Amino acid sequence: MLDENLPTFYLRPSSDNVKHHASVLVSQYGSEAAPAYSLRHPDPALPGSKNRYAVALYDSYNPEILYGEVLLIPEWTQPTLSQEEIRRNGGVPPAPQPILPSSFVIQLYNPDQQIQVQQDVSRWSATPKWVFEMPQQSFRQPSVSSIDRTQSDPTASENTPKLEFKWKKDGKLSKDYVCSLSGKNTNPDGSKRKNKEPDITVAIFKYLREITMYEPNLSRVEMEDPKGLEVVMLLSAIVIREVYNGHMRETFNVSDAPRRLSGERPPRKSSDRTQRPHIDVSTSQAPLQAPFPNQTINPRPPPTDPRSQWEIDAETIRLKKQVEREERQRRRAEHAETKHVKKMLEDEERKARQKQLEIDKETERLRREFEREQRQAQKNPKPPLPSRPNAGLQPGFSSFNYPQAPVQRPHSASPYHAPSPYMQPPGNVASSSTFSNRPSATARPPNGQRPSAKPCFFRTLGHPDHSRPRLTKKQSAVF
Q1: More confident residue, 161 or 405
Q2: Is residue 33 classed exposed, middle or buried when 0-12, 13-18 and 19+ CB atoms within 10 A define those classes?
């Protein structure tokens, strides 16, 4: 601080925590710094703020009051025609670079006037300085004449006397800037510089952070609009700090050049060969970029500078190459998938042929074995089976006659017994009976032969002896 009694303006970050906003505080006579102005820059994310610099000075308590603003659009370098540079840049001409402008215009409001600040570089010391002029008369004189009302404002008139101010460094190695009022020329014709009055210091920009108004000398400035002079000095000092002492890419919000297309590589495939990625061919023709549903779409103004046009051309070339690369990847994936399916079909056909060969081989083996058995059977014929001795018997009955055991019944009170087929002497037993199941223990078959077992249905089926009678299906007498 040069002097705590002088009005000093401090540049501080904004209290609303917005990165592109700032606050201008003022302090005088040792008082605590209080907000005086609000400094605003456009949002860098907006398309309209690309490739340009803008700053506006608002009232701190009433944000609708705009005191002045600066809009600075730089010039750009011409694109190179060297094929080597284009080849090294991936087929795209190098991006045009901004050229630091040598002047800028400050737009004041109420009354409206434009103040042009021109940069001038000394030939001997190479120290730059920024010169601007302000009219001594800024407001119209009160008049009831309609003719006076039709006249232009004094700020736009060439006949209005003007005062010249300039910003320059306090020293060659110093970072401070001094704003001074150029001294008047005492020589009427203005031919001799020795008759010029010395410059009057009106402000000091110290450490590019605080601006001190030299109030005793401001009273010597013959102007109707001291507030306008204060706004012009503040805005010119801010522009000098941010544009001529800052980084050009950040100041003019120049977007980074897209990465080189020649260095882009397709994504690496997975090392696991068993997992094949599924590629949806139908979605390959979809738009490459889709806006988010909640994103506010700001229509970008038409390109007004070579940098914007270059960005559009570079983006067009990049998207075209990206589409071609995706098309190649899609064709490569389709070819790989076709090859994979063809290989699977060939494997299945090979397995089917191998299985058919095994079946044919087994069939041939069985046929040979069957032929060998037939040849052995022809060489060693089997003896004929013995004929059945009782071929005329009814099926299901044995050829032996078993005497029926006498059935003992209790004696009845009647002395007379009717003849019954069950009461027969042992010698008159029928040859076969359908009511007797157990042979007599004392009965012996004729010729001294041993009685055979009673034929059984299950035993007849399972016994391998062919001499015994077999059960046959009963034939119908009608059919």
Answers
A1: 161
A2: middle
